[in-house]
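Page 42, continued from yesterday. The earlier attempt failed because a stray header line got pasted into the input along with the sequence. Redoing it now with the clean sequence only.
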Amino acid sequence: MKVIFSIIIFALLAACGGDHARTPPQQWKDLTFMVETRPPELRPGMIEFLVLANRGSRKRAHDLLVSIRIGRSGRWVQSIQDGNTGVYRRALKVTDPETDILSVHIKHKDEEKLFEFPLSTLLPEKPAP
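This time it went through. Structure tokens are written below.
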């Protein structure tokens, strides 16, 4: 019975992850940031962005204020913290996934940091001609 239960749990965990593209990680002090999208297939239209924040290798960073915008001149919108999981969510309109850039503003206590994540890093690689 324990074996069956373990197989079911493993299958459920495997189904929850792995299909979503992530940007390469970016560092600030002891924090690591990556971005995922929902849906995972990036296309023009409304896309939900998930900013994933970790402290060290496994500890979730849940004490941040995270705002995002498309480009360098878009309007900043505050992301919604998803519990104490280190995930910050918000949907934005994407015009051109190949050229748009997601700007991420992080505030922690009295310190601030700005990151840029080119959305092209989330697109599948095109086959060589």
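Notes: The longest strand covers residues 45-55.
Reminder to self: strip header lines before submitting.
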